[in-house]
Amino acid sequence: MRLPRRWLLGLVALIAIVQADAGRAEADGAREFELRAQPLDQALAAFSVSTGLQMLYDSSLAAGRRSSPVSGRMRSREALALMLAGTGLTARFTPAGAVVIYAGSTSAVTLNPITATAAPIIGRSGANAEARAYAEAVQRQTVEALRRDAVLSGGDYALSVRLWVAGDGATRRVEVLNGSGEAGRDAEFLTLASTLRFPAPPPDLPQPMRIEFRVRQRH
Asked: Is 40 helix (H, G, I), strand (E, B) or coil?
């Protein structure tokens, strides 16, 4: 069946409009967002599904926090910034297509029944915000691993290390700078750290990262 000429012209015009809109969206990376205010962990999950981006964060960061609503056409970075407004959290987009959510320049992560703190120090002074954010993501992920290790989550101690990360996020090398006072515990940490895989680092990350861990039993 042949379509009337006016239908064909209308169809061509509609295709042209769709292609033009798609081209504009591709050019500026914008898309439509419609995300209500909700518990932050649910909002981050919805954002991940909507954008296809992997969200990397310590689950304790989302606890008790709510997102701000996001509505309209915008880039993913802008949408996430609006979503996190008022939460005290910040996001960093990695070259590998993931997003690291972090808070502050140092962190204190509560481990039941201990508290471990880690202050990341980048290899040279003047490191940019992206490098500092990445170091925070590395120390948070390491602390999560400490939580699950019976040896490393026990006792009161401090331990500082130098850590190098490969381009794919795998631990390339780790060295103890100042030990915990127990050789066995230091060896356990080196073994643990060498098996961890982190987000892909930013291309200009100063290495090694120097990270100090302090574990204290809560009395």
From this structure: helix
Q: How far apart are CA 98 and CA 53, in angstroms?
A: 5
Q: Measured between alpha carbons, how far is 85 from 9 in angstroms, rounded to an integer?
A: 46
Which of these, 158, 56, 154, lies nearest to 112 by C-alpha position?
A: 154
Q: Which has more confidence, 108 or 118?
A: 118
Same domain, 155 and 55: no
Rounded Cα distance between 116 and 54, Å, is 26
**Which of 67-71, 83-87, 187-191 has the lowest average pLDDT?**
83-87
Q: What is the arithmetic mean of pLDDT over 75-98?
A: 81
User: Do residues 36 and 131 both lie within one domain?
Assistant: no
Q: How far apart are CA 15 and CA 13, in angstroms?
A: 5
Q: What is the pLDDT of residue 5?
A: 46
Residue 183: its pLDDT value, please?
Answer: 92
Residues forming a β-bridge with 160: 178, 212
Domain end call among 48, 71, 102: 102
Closest Cα partner for 34 from 85, 83, 98?
A: 83
Q: Residue written as tokens 């691993």?
A: 145
Model confidence pTM above 0.70: no
| pLDDT surpasses 90 at 174 | yes
